[in-house]
Design goal:
about 260 residues, alpha/beta, Rossmann fold, 2 domains, 10 helices, about 40% helix, about 20% strand, ATP binding
Length: about 260
């Protein structure tokens, strides 16, 4: 679905992504791991149009999407979340979801005068869809809570819910488990698996929690120093000497597992 070819992103003399090449299969949940500074988030930012690549190419189902801005990729069904949730804190959780679909009639001044019935009909449909999403994510009890007042894990669920308000095809999740307690992390994992199995979402997940990666992801890709170091199942990755070296600098001599 996504093919990345020899992608590079430099900042001055620093090579954050240094010739990375990888493929993301349609319908997969792919894990992306690596030590801090490996280039994982920068790779996400380049694919998702947040940053322009220095060189290289990104295609989505054969279409060249290299350097397209995020709003164009959004319309193609490519979405991403961030390490820190970006909610509208003064709005309710339901309202946060209702804002997502583009091209709403209420956005046009003319319609506020002459299209009030259309606006009202759209808002009823959006409200019903938002409530369905909140129920799917098991946070329907937070519908009328201000988004800025819910927990970090619930904000991550809300971000996942935003992808459900449009026709998402592939979602890039950046450290979805950061700062999230184990119970909510399991809830997030359940939602990802259901979206993958029931709605055909493709996911790419950056995460440091190896238990979470092991539960959800196959294949797993490991990056280090801006390059793709290895790809395979999590067990294969954890047994790879180059991966162990990248994480621990010890090679196989200590036979230590890749840390979570």
């Amino acid at each position: 679905m996504i093919v990345v070819e020899n992608l590079r992103k430099t900042f001055g003399g620093f090579h954050a992504v240094d010739g990375a090449s990888l493929s993301i299969a349609k319908g997969s949940i792919t894990g992306l791991i690596g030590p801090n500074g490996a280039g994982k988030t920068t790779l996400f930012n380049v694919i998702a149009g947040v940053l322009d690549p220095t060189s290289g190419r990104v295609t989505m189902e054969g279409e060249d999407i290299t350097g397209l801005p995020p709003h164009e990729l959004f319309h193609k069904g490519l979405l991403r979340t961030f390490q820190i949730a970006h909610e509208f804190s003064s709005m309710t959780c339901r309202e946060n979801l209702m804002m997502v679909p583009p091209g709403q009639s209420g956005e046009r001044l003319w319609n506020t005068w002459f299209g009030r019935k259309r606006i009202a009909d759209e808002e009823r449909a959006l409200r019903a869809k938002a409530d369905e999403v909140l129920e799917f994510l098991t946070i329907e009890h937070l519908a009328d809570h201000k988004a800025g007042q819910v927990s970090g894990g619930q904000k991550k669920l809300l971000e996942l819910g935003r992808t459900m308000m449009v026709d998402a095809r592939i979602v890039f999740l950046d450290e979805v488990g950061a700062g999230v307690n184990r119970t909510l992390l399991n809830t997030i994992g359940d939602a990802i698996q259901r979206l993958n199995a029931e709605r055909g979402y493709t996911f790419v997940v950056i995460e440091h929690d190896m238990d979470f990666i092991g539960r959800l992801c196959d294949p797993v890709i490991c990056m280090a120093e801006g390059k793709v170091l290895a790809e395979g199942t999590l067990d294969e990755i954890k047994a790879n000497e180059d991966v162990i070296e990248a994480y621990l600098g010890t090679g196989l001599k200590n036979k230590t597992e890749v840390p979570a």
